C-alpha cells in the first residue's frame, strides 16, 4: 500500500530560493511597462505648518517633465485613508489625506507628485517647485501634545486621539489589599520595521477595458483593493493588485499608504503607466514608524510573590495621523501586559497622542515588544524588593496547563476579549532553564571578568496569531495531473510557496514537485486577507486542508462518472484513481481542470508561547554590551518546516536585539528626523550578535485549527527588550543600575553607570 | 556617453548619461535586475557587484568608471544550477525575502575567492558591510563557512 505523503514537519529547502539566489526574482522595481512615466513625490520639509502657496510653473516647464499634480488636481476633497483595523468613528478626524491640502503635519508628508520621462528628471524637478509653508510650532513629545501648545487638528481640540482601556477583575480593590506595590515609569523608543526592499508601485490603466492593474501589492491586497476602488469610484473587479516578490514586510509594508492611492490614481488620470520607487530616506520618513511609548504602571504582589494586579497609564506617540492599523500597538501594550502570567486584576489605559512625526503602525510583535519590556522589568524589580528568586517568581505565576483556556484582559472601545488557548508554560520554561545552563551561568552573575560585568536574565512571552475572519484557497487539478494552489495569504518573504506546497502535498497526496503555489494577488481568489498577525500558515494552510477534501470529492465524482460507479467506490491512490482493480491516472482524468474553493473561518487567536534566556557582558567604561548567549524555546503547536520556522525565530530575535540596543528614530525639537540614513539608523550587522540559539517544540497543538499550528512569525523578538535590560541590570547589580528606557545604547548605559557611581 | 565593458564574460556597450550609477546602468540599461538597490548610499550592500574581482557598491560607482573593466553580477555566478555557494545558502536557509541576497552572494564570493580559509570572525567582519533584515545573519555565516571547501586553495582541498 502506498504511504501517504509526509512533507509537513520536514526541513524542505525552499522553492523560492532557486530564483532569489541567482538574481532571478522579480521585485516591484524590476517591473516595467511600455511608455511608463516615473513618479517622484514632493514632501514636506516642515513638521507642522500651513501651505501658503504652491507654484509648479518652473518645474512643469522643464524638458521631460510631463505632469505636476497637487491636492487641487484630485477634486474638491482628496481621499482620506480609512482604518483597516479597529475603525472607530471618533478616529476619523485623524485619517491621513493622500496629499496634504492646507496643512502639513510631518516631515515627509506628500504635497505634490511629479511625473517625468526619467526618475532623475522628476527628482530634479522637485527643486523647481516653489512651495511656501508658514511654520507652526511642532509637537514632538508627550508634554507638548498634552499641553496643547499647538494642535494638529484644530477642529478636534485635542492632540489625544483615543484612550484604550484594558480591564479584568477589580484592580483598585486588589491594589488596596496588596501586601506590596511597585510603581515605575518606562519608555520604549520609536523605531521601525525597516525592511530591505524599498516600497514601490507600477500602475497601468487600460481605458478600453476600464481596468486598472497595480504591481507592488503586499500583505493585504484584497482589503487595499476595496479602499482603492472606493477612492477611485471604480468597481472592485475593475482593479487587480498584483503581488510580485516582496522584500520583507514585518507589519509595515502593504498597509494602505498615500502612494497606494496616488500612483494608481495618476496612472488612470493621465492614461499612462506610472512607476514609483521610494529611496531609503523617503522610506524612513514615510513608512510606518512603531513602538514609541511611555508609561507609568504599577504591579501589586502578595508577600509570598503572587501577582495580583497591574494598573496604570500608557501614552503612545502615534505621529501625525492614525494609519490603517495604528491602534494595534498601543492597544496591545494595554491588553497583553499580563503576558503568560496569571493576573486576575488589570486596569491599564493607553492614550494615543498625535505629534508632528511620521505616523505609526504595526511592526512585528506590535505592542508586545514594548509591553514585555515593561512587565519583565517589573518582575525583576519585584524579585529584588521581595528577595524572591526571579526564576521562582516567574514559575510561580505562569499560567498552568490546567488553567487553560485562560482569559486575558478585555479591551474597549473597539471591544475584544481573548483567551490563551493551550500550553504547558512551565515545561517550556524549565526546558529553557536547562538548555541555557542557568544554574552554571548564574555563578557568573555580577562578576567582573576581563573588564566586563556578566549578567543573565530570563523572561517568558506569548505570541498571538491567526487573526480571522477567514482565508480562501482555490485548488486546481490541471489536466496534466499537476496541482495549482491559489491563496488569499500573501508572502512577505517568509517562504510561503514552500510551506503551502508541503501542506498541499500532504493534504492531496499529490507529489510535492507537481504543486505550484500562487498567492497574494487579487486575481487568484475572490477574497483574501493576507499576511499579518502571524496568520499566513495557520489560515492559508487550514484553507488548503479544507479545499483538499473538496478536491478529493470532486475527483471521486469525476472518476465515478468515467467508471460508471458510485463516488464512494472510487479508491484514491496518489496520482491514480481506481475502481474494481482498474486504475486511471489523474492526468487526463477530465477534459478540463478540476477546481474547488474553500474558506477557513477562525474567530480564535492562536497563542504560541515560550521562554528566553540570555547571558551578557557589560563594559562599564564604554557602556557596550556583548550578548554572549541568547536562547529561545518556543512551543508552536505544530511545525510545518523546521528550517523556515527556525529562520523566523533567529531573525526575529536579532530584530529584537536591534530594538533593544541600536535602532532609534530620533527627532529634533523642530520635528526634523535626524536619523534618515543607514549611517544614522543602526540595524544589527553580521558581527553584532553571533550567539543566538532557538529551539522550537510541538508540545501542545492548537485546538482551534485543523493543522494544530500556532502563528509563529513574531515571537522571537517579543521579550528581547525586557530580557536585555534585566541582564544589564543583573550585570551591574553592584551599582543598582536599573534601565527604564530603551534603547540600551552605550551612551545610556555609560550614563547609568556614571550616575550610579556618583551615588555609591 | 558610451561605456564599454565586460559583463558576466560578455562584451557590452551602453549609452548612458554621465551621472548614471553603475547600479542603474546594470538594472535599467542592461536588464541585470538581480542587482538590488536598498539604500543608494552605500551602506546596505544589496547592490554589491564584482569589478575585476573586487566587491564594490554599484550604487556608489558611476557606470563610466567601469569602462574597460570586468564586471560580474549575481547572474554571472551560476548557470541553470546553483553555484556551490548559492547551494550552501539554500541548504542553510540563509535567505528569506531574498532582496539582500545578491549582495551577500557577491560579497562572500569575492571573499572566498581571495581568502578561502577565512575564519568565522573574518567572515562576520566582511559580511558586516551588508545588511539583512530577515535572517539575523546566523545562517548566512554558516552558509559561507560551509562553502569554503568549494573554493580552490582552501586548506581542506589541499
Q: Gist?
A:
Chain A is built from 18 helices and 30 strands.
Question: Your description of this structure?
Answer:
The complex is a heterodimer of chains A (760) and B (158). Chain A has 3 domains: 31-136 and 198-246 and 253-286, Aldehyde oxidase/xanthine dehydrogenase, a/b hammerhead (Aldehyde Oxidoreductase, domain 3); 289-466 and 604-759, Aldehyde Oxidoreductase, domain 4 (2-Layer Sandwich), CATH 3.30.365; 467-601, Aldehyde oxidase/xanthine dehydrogenase, molybdopterin binding domain (Aldehyde Oxidoreductase, domain 4). Chain A is globular and about 85 Å long. The model of chain A has no long low-confidence stretch (mean pLDDT 96). Helices cover 26% and strands 27% of the residues of chain A. Chain A has a 7-stranded mixed beta sheet, sandwiched between helices. A 6-stranded mixed beta sheet of chain A has the order 8-13-14-15-7-17. In chain A, helix 9 links the parallel strand 14 (307-319) and strand 15. Chain A is built from 18 helices and 30 strands. Chain A is of the alpha+beta class and 760 residues long. Chain B is an alpha+beta fold. Chain B folds into 2 domains: 2-75, Beta-grasp domain (Ubiquitin-like (UB roll)), CATH 3.10.20.30; 84-153, [2Fe-2S]-binding domain (DNA polymerase, domain 1, Orthogonal Bundle), CATH 1.10.150.120. In chain B, 30% of the residues lie in helices and 15% in strands. Chain B has 5 helices and 5 strands. Chain B has helices spanning 22-29, 84-91, 101-114, 120-127, 138-147; strands at residues 2-7, 10-15, 48-51, 54-57, 70-72. A 5-stranded mixed beta sheet of chain B has the order 2-1-5-3-4, sandwiched between helices. In chain B, a hairpin with a 2-residue loop joins strand 3 and strand 4. In chain B, helix 2 runs antiparallel to helix 5. The termini of chain B are far apart. Chains A and B meet through helix 1 and helix 16 of A and helix 2, helix 3, helix 4 and helix 5 of B.
